[in-house]
Structure formats: structure tokens, C-alpha cells
Amino acid sequence: MLTPKFKLSQDENHVYINVHAPYTNIGETEIDVDGENFLFVSSPYFLRLRLPGRIVENDSAKGSYICDSGDFNLTFDKVNPGEHFENLDMITSLLAPREIPEINPNLVEMLEESGIAGEEEGAACSKSDKDTESDDDTTNYAYGFGNKVCVELGDVASEFPHIFELKEPDRVAIADRNDLRIKHENRKFSTDHYLADFFDEELLEPYLNCVVFWNKEDFDAESIEFTDEEISILKDLPNKSYLLSKTEYTQVMLGLVDILYAFCYDKRTTQNDASVESSWTINKLSATFSWFCVFKETKEVLIAAYRRALSYPIFRNFELCRNIHDDMISLFRKGKKFVIKCIIEIYNMFNSCNDARYILNQLYVKDYLIFLQKCRQEELDELCNNIANIDIEKKDLGFELDELEEAAKLVEREEADVLQNELACQLASIALVPGLKKPPYIDVTALINSSSTDSSSYTSSTSDSSSDSLDSDDDPS
């Protein structure tokens, strides 16, 4: 059975459900409402939703079918008039979820509003936290969203060096990956490239002054809606819940920061027009994608993002990194729906590129799309505030940028002094050329005193004087 496209909206007293089901037999269509449960069956379509509030099928319920578009438009009353149903536009989270496995109620508390499980305050560590203490446990070598993938990746990573810099994540412990990444970045960092971009203000000016599209005056965050293509992607995702410890939850949220920083870099440096290199840029700048890294603190992930932005892409400038930092803060402030739309764009990039980056969708992006729909807006607001309150300085990055820039400026001044001295010497050597005289001029006093002199004699005298005052170097011939 196929899951049809659907949209939901509401007003104070009603819920409106639109189901796009072309090529169906209306006579065999079944629609059923039971509290928060909605069922639509019409071969070959099947749709079961669990709404965030209760609706009722009564005499005022309405329904219509538009043959040309294949749309069912349904209207139901709310059981409690005036109640606001949260997240009606989070398509995946409305699909009837799979059964949640039995868990220890003393260990994990299910958060029904978010669909995300977190440790209770004061509870013991979850299994994933305990397992990291054991070197031979497979969870110590896990990867993917929330480090939930424990199967061997084998030679897959080695076969795609343009996607993964860590070739065998299942053989490198999670705790060791960041150290290996930092050593690799130290080798990749080019002082020549960095200084070239540091001094070339004209080259970087368009990108430093670029305004990403979500910061433009005509961008209306209140009117953000999912397109039909985006709805098709979301409806095909499984609605599942995540059992995450506090540590895993923090790692997932910081991984989102890492991914969106790379996304913002691409938007600014392409001036909002994604290119064929955009999937490479996002992949390479994200330590989550390239190294299967996880982070414990917000400053740690921002430092990693800055470092990679100064080591790999074509434009490597610290002020550019700071502008991208601000772009990411403003992106989060546009709301959860806009964050999801950005992740969908990454999903489409990876699916459409020719370098098999769809594997990153399987490992990370699809789960982020499900996870974000279940997150509360307050959680993203808190993450955004944490990002905004951290200021990354050059000394934090470990590349000794201040010393490098100061040394380059000193060399620049010395070269300017040498050039100035050479120019002065050249001018002095010109002044010392033998026989070089001032240009000829007419002595007015002598002209007056010689007024009684014969005109022919005067003409001869001035002619001889002009001839003597010309030097061979002044002869235009």
C-alpha cells in the first residue's frame, strides 16, 4: 500500500485534512475518525494518522473529492473548541508510529510531546554510556545518527575517500576520532592559502558582504510552508522514536550545528546559488560526515567547524567564518520548520550528486529529518542561544593565526621598505648621470640688454645656445 501526500491545517474549531490520492476508486474509499486517530483507506493508498488532539466525525463533518486533482478535502470538528493542535505541519510525526520497545521505566522517561526518550534526572547511565568504558564493546566503535550503527562498514569507507576521511570507523574508537581529525587538519592547513585570502580583500569582499537569503528583507519566516516535493520526502520517512541518553542527545544536537555550519558556508560562498560542488563542501566541512565525530560542548563543535572552513574550501578567511557563524544563528531563529527545510535541501543534494553521498542520508540525514520533527521549538531556541553566546577567537583554533598574520605583516612592511629604498637609489642614480642639464630657458634680462644688437646676430646666438643645451638623452630621435 502507498502512503498518499497529505496536508493538515486548522482554525479555532476545525481541522482540515487534504489527502492527494489520484487514480483511486471513490466507491471503495473508507474514512474513519476515532479521537486522535484518523484512517484513510482507498486502494492503493493507506494513511493512518495520530493527531496531537481529538477530533470528531459528526453531522457537521464535510468531505469532497476533486476529480481533476485527485484530492480529498475533509473537515472535522475539534472535540475541544479553541484547542490549538501543535505541529500539524510535521508530516512524519503524524504518521502512526511503530510500537516502542519495552524499556526500564526507572531508567528512561518517554517524552510524548517530542517522541524522544531521555534519561530521567538522577538516573543511572544508559547502556551506551556504560559501554564506552569497555574497549572491546562494539558500541565503542559505533557511528551514524546517535552512534546507533554498530555493524561493520568494511571497505565502504575506503572505497569513497572523497566522502570519508576516516576510512574505518568501526575500528577507531569514538573517543579517538577527534584527536585524529585535529592532527589531519594540522597537516592540511596551508599558511600560504590562508595568507593569500587574508591579504586579498578584493577577492573576499563579495562573500564577506553577501546576505544569505533568509536574512533578506523580503524573507517572511511566518509564511514558511513545505513544498509538495518536501512533503513527499517527509511522508515516506518512518515515524519512529529515539531512545537517547543525555550524552547522546547532546551529541545529536551538536552534530546538527556542525552540519548547518557547513550548509551556511556553502550558501554564503555561492551567494545563495548552490553549485555542483555544494554537496562536496557540506560533506567536507562537516566533521560529523567526514570523520564520524561527536562533540560534547558547543564551543568544541564551533572550533571544529572554523578549523575545517580554514583548511579545505576555496575561501579561507577568519572573518568569513565569523559571518557564517552569524548566518547559522539567524537560521535557527527562523524556526524549526525552516531548519527542516534546510536539512531536506542537504538530503536532495546528497541524493542527486554522482559521488554516492546518498550513504550519508542513510547514516545521518534521514534520522535528523525524523528527529527534528519531534523536537520542541524550545530545544532549538536553547541550542541557538548557546551558539550565540560563544565567541570563537583566532587563538582557539590551534593554527597560530595571530602570529602568522603578524609575521606576514612584518614581512610586508620590510618588503615595502626595501622597495622604497630601491626606488630612492634609482632616482639618485638618474640625478648623477654625467652631462645631464636642466631644460633650456630664455633669460629675459639678457634679451632686454641685447635689444640694440643686430637681429641676425641675436638669432645666431640663441640658436647656438639651444643647440648646446640639448643632451643626447633628450634627443627624441
TrEMBL record:
One of its GO terms (cellular component) is cytoplasm. Residues 119-138, 450-477 are annotated as: Disordered. Residues 450-469 have a biased composition (Low complexity). Keywords: Coiled coil. Pfam families: SHQ1, SHQ1-like_CS. Residues 1-89 form the CS domain. The keyword DNA-binding does not apply. One of its GO terms (molecular function) is unfolded protein binding. One of its GO terms (biological process) is box H/ACA snoRNP assembly. Residues 387-421 form a coiled coil. InterPro entries: CS_dom, HSP20-like_chaperone, Shq1, SHQ1-like_CS, Shq1_C. Belongs to the SHQ1 family. This is Protein SHQ1 homolog. The gene is LOC106116127.
